[in-house]
Amino acid sequence: VPIAVFLSGRGSNFAALAEAAEDPAYPARIVLVLSDKVDAKGLDLARAKGIATAAVARRDYDSRDAFDSALEAKVHEAGAQLICLAGFMRILGRPFVERWEGRMLNIHPSLLPAYRGLDTHARALADGVAEHGVTVHLVTPELDDGPALAQARVPVRPDDTPDTLAQRVLVEEHKLYPAALAAYLAG
Ligand code: GRF
């Protein structure tokens, strides 16, 4: 299945997906990496791997709908049939999300429904939770709210900082996203 990955920054989850997709037996192949940030590191990673990239800046469009349509045009142009959000830091409009419902996945660094939104690691630490983790879910119009496809858990240690906890979660993210996507495509 040809997929597009949307990202805004570092792109380590994209890299994990790309590595998995190098196996000919893997059920997805990345045909486009799309970013709302022209200087996203993830775009450089994609270029280095010979994967097509596109950058679409929000400020070049008058409305969210116009921006979303520009994104969608790139996705169609590349022939992608499924979208993986991987650190894409913009909220997509309801019409776009509804058109892609069941065909758009996201990875969120918490055990949803806990800690939707930003700063998940700091909030988990502030609450003193014993366990934290990551969720791959289907995207629905409500932020970080769609049905979970897979989760991975990590322990929270007494001396954790948001950074050390994020790092422990990220190791799991890189395993979970490729596995969850493959399982989803396998039905
Ligand atoms: C990850 O923690 C992901 O779960 C969250 O944003 C971060 C993106 O990291 N949605 P990267 O760009 O994939 O390295």
From TrEMBL:
MF (Gene Ontology): phosphoribosylglycinamide formyltransferase activity
Domain Formyl transferase N-terminal: 3-181
Amino acids binding N(1)-(5-phospho-beta-D-ribosyl)glycinamide: 11-13
GO biological process: 'de novo' IMP biosynthetic process
EC number(s) per entry: 2.1.2.2
GO annotations of cellular component type: cytosol
Reactions that this protein is recorded to catalyse: N(1)-(5-phospho-beta-D-ribosyl)glycinamide + (6R)-10-formyltetrahydrofolate = N(2)-formyl-N(1)-(5-phospho-beta-D-ribosyl)glycinamide + (6S)-5,6,7,8-tetrahydrofolate + H(+)
Site for Raises pKa of active site His, residues: 144
Enzyme class: transferase
Positions contributing to (6R)-10-formyltetrahydrofolate binding: 64, 89-92, 106
Keyword terms, alphabetized: Purine biosynthesis, Transferase
Pathway: Purine metabolism; IMP biosynthesis via de novo pathway; N(2)-formyl-N(1)-(5-phospho-D-ribosyl)glycinamide from N(1)-(5-phospho-D-ribosyl)glycinamide (10-formyl THF route): step 1/1
Catalytic center residues: 108
Record's function text: Catalyzes the transfer of a formyl group from 10-formyltetrahydrofolate to 5-phospho-ribosyl-glycinamide (GAR), producing 5-phospho-ribosyl-N-formylglycinamide (FGAR) and tetrahydrofolate.
Family label: Belongs to the GART family.
Protein name, UniProt field: Phosphoribosylglycinamide formyltransferase
Protein encoded by which gene: purN
